[in-house]
């Protein structure tokens, strides 16, 4: 098709692509085109130029344009017909004009603070598409005892009576705090008294709360590279300057952290099961990190988000239990062991921080809703939690074995899985000629949710990792096997070179 027949470039207006910037060009192009769709410069039904033509006009590689188009296609902004071209969708996906302001509008000015803008711009944690294989962090809800849970909620309310309806302790329901302290002491070797346990509305709230309390704007904080976007967003929201510290087979590289950000006030780490690589931090690294924190009076925040599911190796104590200097704050979550929408988690703080945290909770939100806490207390105290955990551990161990077998078979000689010793996902390492973001986008189009490893790197350019994350807990082995084979077929169909 002749380029002159394609009017889209003039209707788009000027588009600034920052070729030297950290954001990959395909992301910038995707955002520019998406914005043009959202604000009506590209109209429903309008044809986008062929990828080759756009690439030539804007001096981009064809892959860059194809990847941007694939993303728009996967998200429903455009439709594609083989041989016919790419068209702006007649009906747009949810949550566009008129509802949530697009990012560029936010930037242009709804009066946000600098930190508000940083938060609005931070990469979103995709909580959509959870019903699809291989969505991350989703437990098998088919086996959760919801009927029992409903009974416990009702009973807690009836038996708790008026005290549950009056002013709550911002630190949480005392019987639940005591139960969690006993559990953490016994199972994770965490050193704590019930008074040090703070109930939060999910680990994410705990991380944001700690960042607000412990960091001043501009303070440096180490984050794992690659790492969980939610961790970064929590720190960014407090105005922190992130120091991305590489992770290797032993966990965060403390020497690299000291070289890059010796003056950091805080390090946020996932020692039991690094997200997303799945490695367990070695004892040598743990001790080194603790020494660094003790010497610098820095904080270590230990995000222990899914360590309950450990399948190999000896039982692993928490980093917090090794800390003789009171520098480690432990964060845990019920999202994986119970269900994500429960929004209950906990933070274990050193005694000196208890009252500042109480004050902060009072000012921020007054505490977490009490009735679910009371029901969760009964769930733990009556032994249901321990038996559910045991059952999930063996169920997920079987699913993990099954998905590893499927991968070994479907990807034989081409790609390998790294499973670590714990958790609910495996990492499929891909060869360099198979870009993970391209595969993830194509997978999305056939109903698979497989985040690209490169998307967890701060610069998202994939230079330090190329792979896909495959959550395995939510689906049965037969479905996982089908999905693994569909993925392998997509790999075979990827354009080479
Ligand atoms: C590494 C990591 N940290 C923290 C969280 C937040 O957990 P929560 O659902 O309790 O807020 C998640 C959620 O998936 C996670 O993967």
From TrEMBL:
Tagged with keyword tRNA-binding: no
Domain of life: Bacteria
GO molecular function annotations of the record: DNA binding; DNA-binding transcription factor activity; pyridoxal phosphate binding
PROSITE patterns for the chain: HTH_GNTR
Domain HTH gntR-type: 23-91
The entry's keywords: DNA-binding, Plasmid, Pyridoxal phosphate, Transcription, Transcription regulation
Protein name in the entry: Transcriptional regulator, GntR family
Family note: In the C-terminal section; belongs to the class-I pyridoxal-phosphate-dependent aminotransferase family.
A Pfam family annotated for this UniProt entry: GntR
Entry keyword annotation includes Coiled coil: no
Species of origin: Azospirillum lipoferum (strain 4B)
């Amino acid at each position: 098709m002749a380029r002159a027949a394609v009017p889209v470039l003039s209707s788009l207006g000027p588009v600034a692509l920052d070729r030297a910037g950290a954001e990959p060009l395909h992301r910038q192009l995707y955002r520019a085109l998406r914005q043009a769709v959202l604000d009506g410069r590209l109209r429903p039904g309008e044809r986008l130029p062929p990828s080759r033509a756009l690439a030539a006009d804007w001096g981009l590689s064809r892959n860059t344009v194809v990847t941007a188009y694939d993303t728009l296609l996967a998200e429903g902004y455009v439709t594609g017909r083989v041989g016919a071209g790419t068209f702006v969708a007649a009906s747009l996906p949810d949550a566009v004009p008129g509802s949530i302001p697009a990012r560029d509008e936010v930037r242009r000015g709804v009066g946000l603070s600098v930190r508000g803008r940083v938060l609005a711009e931070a990469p979103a944690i995709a909580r959509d598409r959870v019903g699809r294989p291989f969505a991350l962090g989703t437990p098998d809800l088919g086996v959760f005892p919801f009927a029992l849970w409903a009974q416990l909620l009702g009973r807690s309310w009836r038996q708790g009576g008026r005290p549950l309806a009056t002013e709550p302790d911002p630190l949480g329901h005392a019987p639940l705090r005591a139960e969690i302290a006993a559990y953490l002491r016994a199972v994770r070797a965490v050193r704590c008294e019930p008074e040090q346990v703070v109930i939060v509305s999910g680990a994410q709230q705990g991380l944001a709360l700690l960042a607000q309390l412990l960091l001043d704007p501009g303070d440096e904080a180490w984050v794992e590279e690659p790492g969980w976007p939610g961790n970064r967003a929590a720190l960014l929201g407090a105005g922190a300057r992130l120091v991305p510290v590489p992770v290797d087979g032993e966990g965060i590289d403390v020497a690299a952290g000291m070289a890059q950000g010796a003056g950091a006030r805080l390090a946020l780490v996932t020692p039991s099961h690094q997200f997303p690589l799945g490695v367990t931090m070695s004892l040598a690294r743990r001790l080194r990190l603790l020494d660094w924190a003790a010497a610098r009076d820095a904080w270590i925040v230990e995000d222990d988000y899914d360590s309950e599911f450990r399948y190999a190796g000896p039982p692993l104590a928490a980093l917090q239990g090794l800390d003789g200097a009171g520098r480690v704050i432990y964060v845990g979550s019920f999202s994986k062991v119970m269900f994500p929408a429960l929004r209950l988690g906990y933070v274990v703080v050193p005694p000196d921080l208890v009252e500042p945290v109480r004050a902060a909770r009072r000012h921020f939100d007054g505490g977490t809703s009490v009735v679910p806490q009371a029901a969760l207390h009964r769930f733990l105290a009556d032994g249901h939690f321990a038996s559910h955990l045991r059952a999930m551990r063996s169920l997920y161990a079987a699913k993990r074995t099954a998905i590893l077998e499927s991968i070994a078979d479907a990807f034989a000689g081409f790609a390998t899985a790294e499973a670590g010793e714990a958790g609910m996902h495996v990492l499929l390492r891909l060869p360099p000629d198979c870009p993970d973001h391209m595969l993830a986008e194509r997978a999305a189009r056939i109903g698979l949710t497989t985040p690209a490893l490169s998307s967890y790197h701060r610069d998202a350019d994939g230079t330090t990792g190329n792979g896909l994350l495959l959550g395995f807990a939510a689906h049965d082995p037969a479905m996982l096997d089908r999905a693994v084979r569909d993925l392998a077929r997509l790999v075979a169909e990827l354009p080479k070179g």
